[in-house]
Specification:
The complex is a heterotrimer.
Chain A: H1 2-20, H2 32-42, H3 61-75, H4 80-91, H5 106-140, H6 145-164
Chain B: H1 2-30, H2 33-62, H3 69-74, H4 81-87, H5 92-112, H6 119-143, H7 167-196, H8 201-232, H9 243-268, H10 272-295, H11 308-332, H12 347-377, H13 387-407, H14 418-443, H15 447-472, H16 480-486, H17 489-514, E1 516-522, E2 527-530, E3 533-544, E4 548-559, E5 562-567, E6 570-574, E7 579-583, E8 585-588, E9 592-601, E10 607-615, H18 618-635, H19 638-650, H20 656-668
Antiparallel strand pairs in B: 1-10, 2-3, 3-4, 4-5, 4-6, 6-7, 8-9, 9-10
Chain C: H1 6-21, E1 42-44, E2 52-54, E3 63-68, H2 73-88, E4 93-98, H3 102-112, E5 118-122, H4 126-130, E6 138-142, E7 148-153, H5 158-174
Parallel strand pairs in C: 3-4, 4-5
Antiparallel strand pairs in C: 1-2, 3-6, 6-7
The chains are: A mainly alpha, B alpha+beta, C alpha/beta.
């Protein structure tokens, strides 16, 4: 029974390995701290053959190769910055999910905060303008007595209606 | 035969759309009542024909008609019938048909439930929706027809993408489209208002329930996508800032700003221009999303089969629809009045700040999503903008929103004193800081996490205190339930929705700060651990599904020796497309999830297994659902139903058909 | 008054970029090596396992480095074009057999023809990574000083050879 089960398993496993590229998995007794660093860095690097996935999440062969490179280099004592430099040297800025801060990305990195400051400032200025315009309107015209009486009557009727049916 | 019927129905729908888009609007300007009335009739007709078309497509799927290219690409005779039905919107062409059907449905709903609106307004709203319909129907009929024949017919289909063979994936697109398309109603109301030059509180009152319902659906749609990704993709992630995810998030942010802005316009008649602009922007972002997903301009796991020719068509449609509406806005907005006055510190100004902040947030997401394209187009190289960027930039931007959100309800309309506000919230603020400090000592979180916890507590506590105070202020002697019921639904809607946000923030903060994962190669008998739980791999066997074979593992989870649960993650191979799929096994609890997924097989029975401990991840879903509940409650507020009822009572003796529609309308709301 | 035109202005700018974007390929990764020295390598030869091949072997010549594999379908597509190019003798081509079992690579060349003066055997793909290879086939044009001048991603076509490669090779040969 077990033999045929094993045989049944081989086919899908073979198929799966062909599709996904079975590679050496991290050994069961791996250094957990190193693995954490590998994971963290892999999550910042892009899988170049996938449709928008990190090295950490992708099972593509190139992704596994690059992740192994990351592991090897970190294990040999290189820093995260050096590994990143290694990747960028070969694949360009495209491989980084955190875009580098350079001239061409200033707008990207500082734009949002500029927008925030600008937006709030514009709002504040606009509100002040409104306040000034309203104050000017107050000073400018005065309402006639007849109009005031009409207004009071209308307000009264409105209040009565509201008491019956608060919306 | 039936597919041809479907195709013909679409053409008829297009013809009706042409009528719907022209005569009613023209009639609204020259006072032709019959032309204006055509709006309702054509809307009903369009809905009928598009429904027939959708029915024909679903029929083709269910009966395995592989003589249609679209069915052959997205179905298979071994596919369970419920997935075959879902397959009708699983690909580009069919999803467009679903979009058009949703649009026809919303249009019909507006036509049916708008008896209390003036005829000119209804004519213009329906006309505008007709214009949008024309765009999509033309796009479908000319470039993406789901009824295209494949001759000779394929013997069997290529199967539905295994990623889509899941319940979550069945309902995610319909929910999402209900939201996207729902914003077209707010958009149409805005255009109608600009056309007529009449923007008053009544207009806001009419738009509001429609916009709120659309917002609810969009919230649920985004939630569903995230929820699905979490359990289906196998690595426990739930948001990747992928271009298409962003395409759904941007309209949500602007939609949130819109529902708050509408509140002000309705109550105080202020912000009219601003609200109209937000309505245009929200729907424009929906349309932009359509473009991004289907044109191939951005890389995404979600993208449909990309085709620059289709992309060009949508781009032209965008230019006309959005360009046209923004031009109309530039022309008409200056003549709209200013509206009620309010002080620098008041509920109005706080809501305005909310709007600005949310718009900046949406703008940031847009900037990040399109930036690689900008640089590439300018020849400045290729970059990637991913989660590290968005997490660094977006999260800090949301801090002021979350902070002010809790104070907003305490501010009074027209004028509020800062000292007054401070007095109302000082005890809550103090309590929150103390609790947060205590938690910081107990959990030693990172600064960002501490801030998140603080904000979440702040929102929850301030919102709760507002509700408690409101309820306590009832006349003495009234029972608690009566006091609760005496508050309008829209009040409880706000409380619930804001609480939902707080719960969501708890979930996000806790998961991102305290989750742990372990990825190791294991064979039956091995053990590993995460988050204080031990996971023992006890069994591995093969199972067969209707259209897949799978390796199924059994994991016993224990904590401190005590059994917690047994999990069965699977790695499936869908036979037709030869595509492997991960089915993660999740033990969901109130305070945490335990997550096990199989990665790759490295040997006969050795698998790379990822086990994860995810604290409070369920609160992310809970928060979204509670937010939606709040939104739903808001749309069901009495004043909308009362208005409907009044109008239906004062209308003349209706025909049997109209009476049924009205009765359904009154019941529905 | 003008501020009401701002939303329209912003939209038109975005529209312009989206229009240009339709002509671009978001998945293509440009090579950061253009104009830089080709990474050095020393690998065993594909056919003669005992012999090595290195970048220095091609110094002083303008040459092509073509990355291929027997499991790559597009490589099969571009192979006739490579054979034609090899026959003209305009430029020597070195093959980089990428992540392929040796026997498969040799058999594939035997079956479809060998356009390369030499083939390097990159079993684990390290040299490929050094060159920034992310998919096969890829072709590099390298000048007499060993500087990479062009990278072509994807299967070569007759047009691509005629329009992109040959003019550059001619120019580099004159230098």
């Amino acid at each position: 029974m077990r033999k045929s089960l094993k045989a049944l398993l081989v086919l899908p496993l073979l198929l799966m390995s062909l599709v996904a590229g079975a590679n050496d998995a991290p050994p069961a007794a791996a250094d957990p701290d190193l693995e954490k660093r590998v994971m963290a860095l892999s999550e910042e690097l892009r899988c170049l053959v996938c449709q928008n996935q990190t090295l950490a999440d992708s099972h593509a062969e190139l992704a596994v190769d690059l992740k192994n490179q990351v592991r090897e280099q970190l294990a040999s004592g290189k820093t995260e910055e050096q590994v990143v430099e290694y990747m960028v040297e070969r694949y360009g800025d495209f491989v980084l999910y955190r875009p580098p801060v350079k001239g061409s990305t200033w707008l990207l990195w500082f734009g949002p905060f500029a927008l925030l400051v600008g937006g709030v400032a514009a709002l504040g200025w606009k509100l002040k303008q409104r306040g000034k315009a309203a104050a000017r309107a107050d000073d400018a015209g005065s309402v006639s007595d007849a109009d005031l009486k009409r207004a009071a009557a209308l307000l009264d009727a409105d209040n009565q209606a509201n008491r019956k049916d608060p919306a | 035969m039936i597919p041809e019927l479907g195709n013909y129905s679409l053409m008829l729908a297009l013809a009706l759309a042409f009528v719907q888009a022209t005569l009613p609007i023209a009639g609204s300007f020259n006072g032709n009542a019959r032309w204006m009335a055509l709006g309702r009739t054509t809307a009903a007709g369009q809905f009928a024909f598009v429904t027939i078309a959708l029915g024909c497509l679903i029929h083709a799927f269910v009966t395995n008609d592989f003589s249609l290219t679209y069915v052959a690409s997205n179905s298979n005779s071994n596919l369970p019938v419920y997935y075959r039905v879902a397959g009708s919107w699983g690909g580009h062409e069919g999803s467009l048909l679903l979009w058009v059907w949703m649009l026809a449905m919303w249009t019909f709903a507006v036509a049916a439930l708008s008896r209390q609106l003036p005829d000119e307004t209804v004519a213009r709203v329906l006309g505008t929706m007709g214009l949008i319909s024309i765009g999509f129907l033309l796009f479908m009929l000319f470039t993406s027809n789901p009824f295209e024949r494949l001759l000779p017919a394929a013997p069997d289909g290529r199967d539905l993408n295994p990623l889509l063979q899941d319940f979550g994936m069945i309902i995610h697109p319909p929910l999402l489209y209900m939201g996207y398309v729902g914003f077209s109603v707010a958009f149409a109301f805005a255009i109608a208002a600009l056309m007529g030059g009449q923007l008053d509180a009544a207009w806001a009152r009419w738009s509001r329930p429609w916009t709120t319902v659309a917002w609810v659906f969009l919230t649920l749609g985004i939630f569903m996508g995230s929820f699905w990704a979490y359990y289906e993709l196998g690595w426990g992630g739930w948001w990747f800032w992928d271009a298409v995810e962003n395409a759904s998030f941007m309209p949500w942010l602007v939609g949130t700003a819109l529902i708050h802005s509408l509140a002000v316009t309705e109550k105080r008649g202020s912000f009219k221009n601003w609200t109209v602009l937000l309505a245009i922007i929200a729907f424009s972002l929906s349309l932009l999303g359509t473009f991004l997903v289907r044109s191939g301009v951005l890389t995404s796991v979600h993208a449909f089969a990309t085709d620059p020719e289709r992309g060009l068509f949508i781009l032209i449609f965008l230019a006309i629809a959005i360009g046209g509406s923004l031009t109309l806005y530039a022309w008409r907005a200056p003549s709209v009045g200013i509206g009620g006055r309010f002080a620098l510190v008041s509920r109005e100004s706080m809501l305005l700040v909310n709007n600005v902040l949310l718009l900046v947030a949406a703008g940031t997401v847009l900037l990040g999503t399109l930036y690689p394209l900008f640089l590439d187009a300018l020849g400045l190289g290729k970059i990637s903008v991913g989660p590290p960027y968005f997490d660094s930039v977006f999260v800090p931007l949301m801090v002021p929103v979350l902070l002010l959100m809790a104070i907003g309800p305490f501010a009074r309309w027209k004028e509020s004193l800062v000292t007054d506000l401070a007095r109302k919230v000082r005890w809550v603020a103090l309590g929150v800081v103390i609790v947060a400090a205590g938690l910081a000592v107990a959990l030693s979180p990172s600064p960002m996490a501490a801030l998140g916890i603080l904000l979440a507590l702040w929102i929850l506590a301030a919102t709760a205190s507002h509700a408690v105070e409101r309820v306590m202020h009832g006349p003495k002697g009234t029972p608690l339930l009566r006091r609760i019921a005496s508050q309008p639904r829209s009040y409880w809607a706000m409380i619930i929705a804001h609480a939902g946000v707080g719960i969501f923030v708890v979930g996000v903060t806790m998961v991102k700060s305290f989750e742990t994962a372990n990825e190791v190669a294991m064979r039956p008998g091995d053990s590993t651990s995460a988050g204080g739980y031990a996971f023992r791999f006890t069994d591995l066997r093969e199972v067969k599904g209707p259209n897949y074979i799978a390796a199924r593992g059994t994991f016993e989870v224990t904590k401190d020796g005590k059994p917690v649960s047994i999990l069965h993650p699977e790695k499936r191979l869908y036979t037709v497309q030869q595509m492997p799929m991960t089915e993660a096994a999740i033990d969901r609890n109130f305070t945490h999830d335990l997550y096990v997924s199989l990665g790759e097989a490295t040997a006969q029975d050795t698998w790379v297994v990822r086990v994860q401990y995810k604290p409070f991840v369920g609160w992310i879903w809970g928060g979204c659902i509670i937010m939606s509940l709040g939104g739903f409650l808001a749309a069901a507020d009495r004043r909308y139903r009362v208005a409907l009822k009044k109008r239906s009572e004062t209308t003349e003796a209706p025909t049997a058909g109209a009476a049924t529609v009205k009765a359904a309308a009154v019941k529905a709301v | 008054m003008k501020r009401f035109l701002l939303p329209l202005g912003i939209f038109l700018t975005i529209l312009l970029f989206l229009g240009v974007g339709l002509k671009l390929n978001p998945r293509e990764v440009p090579s950061p090596f253009i104009g830089k020295a080709a990474p050095d390598f020393r690998l065993a030869q594909l056919h003669q396992a005992g012999q090595t091949i290195s970048k220095a072997d091609m110094a002083g010549k303008v040459w092509l480095l073509n990355v291929w594999a027997s499991w790559c379908v597009s490589c099969r597509q571009e192979h006739p074009v490579l054979m034609d190019l090899a026959r003209t003798g305009v430029v020597p081509m070195v093959g980089l057999n990428y992540k392929d079992p040796r026997e498969d690579g040799i058999a594939w060349l035997r079956q479809h023809g060998n356009p390369y003066v030499m083939s390097a055997y990159d079993r684990d793909g390290r040299v490929g990574i050094n060159y920034g290879v992310y998919g096969v086939p890829e072709t590099f044009v390298i000048d007499k000083q060993g500087v990479i001048r062009l990278k072509f991603t994807g299967p070569l076509t007759k047009e691509a050879v005629a329009e992109k490669l040959l003019p550059l090779i001619k120019e580099l040969n004159r230098a």
